[in-house]
Design goal:
223 residues, four-stranded antiparallel sheet, 22% helix, alpha+beta, 2 domains, Alpha-Beta Plaits, globular
Length: 223
């Protein structure tokens, strides 16, 4: 697994254009990966691509984190897309060794931009088939943190504490191709690993829906 960290230049025309539509960011990122020959296989899932955009308060720059199974080729980014930081940008590192060391009982800090939802309209129809239903956003910090706690039970960790860094209307994004509106919530806090195998699978596979729109990448560090 690889983790890329990039500082984007908000003055770049290409960056501004991509940020107007989350599908533009997704398309830009996937350009750094090879084509997938199987038409039934989604490239994002095949290459394990997860990403997160966030503002860096210290530099005033826009950060883009990208996690993937293979090393991306960021030379495809147009000139001026990345900010001149006077340091390595993008920075790409292998993270498999760090993930492999995470054991049961490990306490970690975390950061996660997620799309907390619940399903409705899942009742069985006249033919007895259960409907898949549709996802609707969860509103309010209490419901959103409870959603994260439930995800923890499924994903091999216990939530110790969580705060919501940002949520609500400012975090709503609309996918023009999908026609769906997503509500983003940035969680920060601490967790304890209870099932290392499931936890590592969640680090690799992401948490919650909307992964193609920049949700689900769980970042962890020493508590």
């Amino acid at each position: 697994m690889y983790l890329s960290l990039m500082y984007l230049d908000p003055r770049s025309t290409a960056v501004v254009r991509d940020l107007r539509d989350p599908e533009g960011v997704h398309t830009r990122i996937m350009g750094a990966f090879p084509s997938v020959l199987d038409p039934e296989q989604k490239a994002r899932a095949y290459f394990g691509v997860l990403y997160r955009l966030e503002d860096d308060r210290r530099s005033g720059r826009l950060l883009l984190y990208v996690q993937s199974h293979i090393k991306p080729d960021w030379s495809i980014l147009s000139k001026g897309y990345l900010a001149d930081m006077g340091m390595e940008n993008p920075a790409v590192k292998e993270i498999d060794p760090a993930y492999a060391k995470i054991g049961e009982g490990r306490r970690l800090r975390f950061r996660l931009r997620a799309n907390p939802t619940r399903k409705i309209d899942t009742k069985s129809g006249p033919d007895g088939q259960r409907n898949n239903g549709r996802r609707v956003p969860l509103h309010g910090p209490e419901a959103q943190v409870a959603w994260l706690a439930r995800q923890g039970t499924r994903c091999g960790f216990e939530l110790v504490r969580a705060t919501i860094a940002s949520a609500g209307a400012a975090e709503r994004i609309h996918g023009h191709a999908s026609g769906r509106t997503f509500q983003g919530v940035m969680f920060e806090g601490q967790l304890v690993v209870r099932d290392p195998a499931r936890f590592r699978a969640s680090l690799v596979g992401g948490i919650g829906p909307g992964k193609a729109y920049g949700f689900g990448l769980l970042s962890v560090g020493p508590a």
